[in-house]
Amino acid sequence: MRASRLVSLVLLLQNRGRMTAAELASALEVSERTIYRDTEALSGAGIPLYADRGAGGGYRLLDGYRTRLTGLTAGEADALLLAGLPDAAAQLGLGAEMAAADLKLLAALPEELRERAERVRSRFHLDAPGWWRATEETPHLSAIAAAVWDQHTIDAAYRRWDGAEVRRRLDPLGVVLKGGTWYFLARPHRGEGRPAPSGPLRPRTFRVSRVCGLQVRDDVFERPADFDLAASWAQWSREFEESRHRLRTRVRLTRRALELMPALSSPITAAGAEGLEPGPDGWCEAELLVESVAVATSEFAAYGPEIEVLEPVELRSALAGCLRAAAALYSR
Fold first, then answer.
1. Dihedral angle, C-alpha 186, 188, 189, 192, nearest 10 °
2. Cis peptide before 312 (omega within 30 of 0)
3. Contact, 326 vs 297, CB < 8 A?
4. In a 10 Å sphere around its CB, with 0-12 CB exposed, 13-18 middle and 19+ buried, how is residue 122 labelled?
5. CA-CA distance, 12 to 15, in Å (whole number)?
6. Which of 69-78, 187-196, 205-214, 229-238 has the lowest mean pLDDT?
7. Which residue range or ranges hold the HTH deoR-type domain (predicted)?
8. Coil, helix or strand for 50?
């Protein structure tokens, strides 16, 4: 750990020029006393490190000195894949590795490219989570990620969507960050009190924030040779979205409703109105897929008088009741 910190200290001075002990301590997350000891060790090892006294002083390297200690460790190489997502790297337990890899990359670049990289960093920032969404607590994320990497089976206590807690033995195959929410794909083991289907078990998707307890086992599983994380996630996402939109409705829409649909409804719902044009009376008819009567009631209420539900009858009644209640509230 100290050897890695000494390399990082040299690379910081190489990339940024003169830095004070306080600045170095903050960047390396150590005390100033540790920085004093480290700089003495580096000087004793022959690194041309100088301390400038006074108010504008600090530590610097001899002009023209460049270290060649830029080889990446395995963890730092892994962190490069998350270079645009520092928060994600930190949640996965790779924050320190990513910072060290970043320093080494900058040190290895010629000066003009290093300046360009710094300009890019100062001008572009990626913030993955959506608006008005609190970050979920994922205390078991780094352990799950390590189990994915090392191919270790895990025993997980998992809270289902209905609040029931179940226990699962799983072979974790991959981790996915979707809109600020972490998921992992895993192959369940047979048994566990459930009927055992014939044939190979298909990987399932789990939300990391719902893992209540976790034990990483010593067992090492064999990863399926044909498993493709990106393709599996895309298939599950498509099936998940389609499974939520099972209620078929028939509605009338104004031009204003057609304009509002991309903003007020899901892409699957909005797909039913693509390419439509209102007739001479200003209305057009469409068949839209929605999740349920309850979801569609609140969703269609946002359109106000720009939409009329024709079928099913229970949705028409529910929407009419919702709008009547709103009208009564505001008529007082």
1. 140
2. yes
3. no
4. exposed
5. 5
6. 69-78
7. 2-57
8. strand
In order, the DSSP letters of 150-218 are: HTEEEEEEEE-TTS-EEEEEEEEEEEEEETTEEEEEEEEPS-TTS---SSPPPPEEEEGGGEEEEEEEE
Measured distance CA(209)–CA(156) in Å, rounded: 12
Q: How many helices (H) and strands (E) does the chain have?
A: 13, 10
Q: Residue 106 and residue 100: Cα distance in Å, rounded? A: 10
- Indicate the pTM of the whole model: 0.55
CA 127 to each of CA 3, 86, 145: distance values in angstroms, whole numbers, following the listed order: 33, 10, 21
Token digits of residue 257:
């409703």
Work out the angle between the directed axes of helices 2-16 and 21-28 (0-180°, nearest 10). Answer: 120
Determine the pLDDT at residue 282.
96
Q: 274: which 2 tokens?
A: 């693509």
Cβ within 8 Å of residue 310, ≥6 positions away: 249, 250, 251, 252, 285, 316
CB atoms within 10 A of CB 185: 21
Instruction: At 164, list the tokens.
Output: 């029931």
Which pLDDT belongs to residue 56? 66
Which DSSP category does 265 fall into? S
Report the pLDDT value the prediction gives residue 320, as an integer from 0 to 100.
96
Please report, for residues 82, 193, 237, the alpha-carbon distance to residue 95 in angstroms, rounded to integers and kept in the order given.
10, 40, 28
The region of weakest confidence among 2-16, 163-177, 214-228 is 2-16
CA 214, distance to chain mean position in Å, is 21
* Bridge partners, 158 (sequence order): 166, 211
Q: Which two tokens stand for residue 122?
A: 């100062």
Strand pairing report for 247-254 and 283-290:
antiparallel
Residue 59, phi then psi, degrees to nearest 5:
-100, 145
Tokens for 225?
A: 């040779």
- DSSP line for 65-90: ------PPPHHHHHHHTTTT-HHHHH
